[in-house]
UniProtKB/TrEMBL annotation:
Species this chain originates from: Streptomyces minutiscleroticus
Gene3D superfamilies: NAD(P)-binding Rossmann-like Domain
Domain NAD-dependent epimerase/dehydratase: 3-224
PANTHER family, sorted: DTDP-D-GLUCOSE 4,6-DEHYDRATASE-RELATED
Protein name: Reductase
Family: Belongs to the NAD(P)-dependent epimerase/dehydratase family.
Superkingdom of the source species: Bacteria
InterPro entries per record: Epimerase_deHydtase, NAD(P)-bd_dom_sf
């Protein structure tokens, strides 16, 4: 089985590619802008006809699209998260219409939900940020393409390799910088928001199951932890792993998205039904693996951060 993983050098893509390479008989090709990519593509700029040529040469049985942007201005987000999947679907329709497409979406597509509830795939989508809106546009492009495709709508990934551009990786770096100093202070934004954290290794397993599952799949499947956890608990959990002896201070700052979306929790029943998937790792497992993996990284320069996950 030939599987093309787009965005294979990113945080999520690297875990997905590693999981797929363990499949017996699988040939995994890395796709993206990296010089090391076996299939060089830039979904943000490639014309569908040029992309179709590259896909035809790769002849994939399945494509997993892990490429995406989490930061940047609205134009950058739109090019990568909305135009990219649309161009990919157009190219696949020409070059490999029988290939299964597994696309990584985001729980940010849902927007605000009522505290104490779990959102299902059929609930309304009301994203409040350019990120969520562009990810939703990518999801619509995939689900309307007519391809054998599924969107995995991912919660907040956490685990080994988490980048400093996201909250878990940033907090881990700040804790490394602080060390055991009892006078160290981590000044963070408001940590009261609830988020649905999922171990990145569980996400990779969900992607593997989506690639290999027989028959058509539902158009969208939630992939999360299935539990809403206060962001404060994640920070304190990492601080415990670090043996942090200083002080954590919250102020009224933080991201606008945290203020607008104070509760996020996904119903993962459909993924269990369609793929036989449920999380195998707890949040504590994920934090332990994240902290262990940061041991070889250079420490952050100062003990300050933003609360936004």
């Amino acid at each position: 089985m030939r599987i093309l993983v787009l965005g294979h050098t990113g945080y999520l893509g690297a875990h997905v590619a590693a999981r797929l390479r363990a499949l017996p008989g699988a040939l995994v090709l890395g796709g993206g802008r990296s010089p090391a990519a076996e299939v060089g593509v830039d979904l943000a700029t490639a014309r569908p006809e040029d992309l179709a040529e590259r896909l035809a040469s790769a002849a994939p049985d399945a494509v997993v699209n892990c490429a995406g942007a989490t930061g940047g201005d609205a134009v950058t987000l739109a090019e990568t998260n909305a135009r990219g999947p649309a161009a990919l679907c157009a190219a696949l329709s020409r070059a490999a219409p029988a290939a299964r497409l597994v696309h990584l979406g985001s729980a940010a597509e849902y927007g605000p939900s009522a505290p104490g509830t779990r959102v299902t795939e059929s609930d309304p989508t009301r994203p409040v940020s350019p990120y969520g809106a562009t990810k939703l546009a990518g999801t619509v492009a995939v689900t309307a393409s007519g391809l054998d495709a599924v969107v995995l709508r991912v919660g907040n990934p956490v685990g080994p390799g988490a980048p400093r551009t996201g909250l878990p990786g940033r907090i881990a770096a700040l804790l490394r910088a602080a060390g055991p100093d009892p006078d160290a202070v981590l000044r963070l934004g408001d940590l009261s928001a609830h988020r649905d954290f999922v171990d990145v290794r569980d996400l990779a397993r969900a992607a593997q199951l989506a690639v290999t599952a027989p028959g058509p799949l539902p158009p969208v499947l939630n992939v999360g932890g299935g539990t809403a956890v206060p962001v404060r608990d994640l920070v304190r959990g990492l601080a415990e792993k670090a043996g942090f002896r200083g002080r954590i201070e919250e102020d009224a700052g933080g991201s606008a998205r945290s203020a607008q979306v104070s509760w996020q929790c996904s119903d993962i029943t459909a993924a269990d039904r369609a793929l036989g998937w449920r999380p195998a790792h707890t949040l504590d497992d994920a934090l332990t693996a994240l902290w262990t993996a940061t041991a070889g990284r250079p420490a952050a320069r100062r003990a300050e951060g933003d609360a936004a996950p």
